[in-house]
Specification:
single chain, TIM Barrel, three-stranded mixed beta sheet, about 50% helix, binds glyceraldehyde-3-phosphate, binds zinc ion
């Protein structure tokens, strides 16, 4: 069932789980993710980043997810990840997305607040929750690499959350995007942020974070963890390995099926490690 983001947050709270957010790119990743949720009988987010909307429009993704969800029974919210512009936000809501992130973390503090404020005003009118980001997350994100380490400043948290009215706060506590750098979470900082924030927290860069650290973060009001690279690797390696074995592999149907199965397996492992271990 495709559900509203607020409803999913309530579901996660009632179950006492960390909601995973899996990034999709295309049909097969989408199928793999939704099958994983179904297999584990657990809900969560399916997300697409603003950058990926160059390949698939919001409407294409929303239609795809809705079609895949017709036979699904666990609650899933369709989330815009790292929303880059107000235009993207509007297009996603018009297409039927049920949860939004606006990422204005690269802007100076006051401008970040302003951009989030107007997004919150818009999204709340439609009853849709907004995730915002404070501090910058290092590493590779689609087409750009952020090298600077800009951890979330504790002193900014309460003011940011209060002024913006955001519903979820993405933090930078040593977590990194991609799988090239090994993340080392700063738990004392996370604990301080959790004290200051009146809204629950989000961890980006889930791929590569040791699972015991993700479970530990749950104790500090982290309710959502994003996974992208991990599933993309499971997907791409399926094709790469088959091609390495046999350069005359043309059975795209069979390989796509294998790729979906490999993505589903990773989704199941992640859900299991994060919430059931
Ligand atoms: O927003 C997306 C996630 O933060 C993805 O991070 O590719 O390191 O799992 P990841
Ligand atoms: Zn991210």
């Amino acid at each position: 069932e495709l559900v509203n983001g607020f409803k999913l947050m309530e579901y996660g709270k009632a179950k006492g789980i960390v909601l995973p957010a899996f990034n999709t790119t295309n049909l097969e990743l989408t199928s793999g993710i939704i099958r994983g949720y179904q297999n584990m009988n657990l809900g969560g987010y399916i997300a697409i980043s603003s950058n990926n909307l160059k390949l698939s429009t919001p409407q294409m993704i929303a239609d795809l997810v809705k079609a895949e969800m017709t036979t699904a029974s666990t609650p899933v919210a369709l989330h815009l990840d790292h929303g880059k512009s107000f235009e993207d936000v509007k297009a996603c809501i018009a297409a039927g997305f049920t949860s939004i992130m606006i990422d204005a973390s690269h802007l100076p503090f006051e401008e970040n607040i302003k951009e989030v404020q107007r997004t919150v005003d818009y999204c709340h009118f439609f009853g849709i929750p907004v995730e915002a980001e404070l501090g910058a997350i290092q590493g590779k994100e689609d087409d750009h690499v952020l090298a600077t380490d800009a951890k979330t400043k504790v002193a900014d948290v309460a003011e940011f959350v209060e002024k913006t009215g955001c519903d979820l706060l993405a933090v930078s506590i040593g977590n990194v995007h991609g799988m090239d750098l090994t993340p080392n979470l700063d738990f004392p900082l996370l604990a301080e942020i959790a004290q200051e924030s009146t809204v629950p927290l989000v961890l980006h860069g889930g791929s590569g974070i040791p699972f015991d650290q993700v479970r530990r973060a749950k104790g500090h009001n982290v309710i959502k963890v994003n996974y992208g690279s991990d599933l993309r690797q499971a997907f791409i390696s399926t094709f790469g390995q088959a091609y390495e074995k046999n350069h005359k592999t043309f059975d795209l149907m069979a390989l796509s099926g294998d790729a979906i199965a490999n993505v589903t397996a990773r989704v199941k492992t992640i859900i299991n490690e994060v919430n059931m271990s």
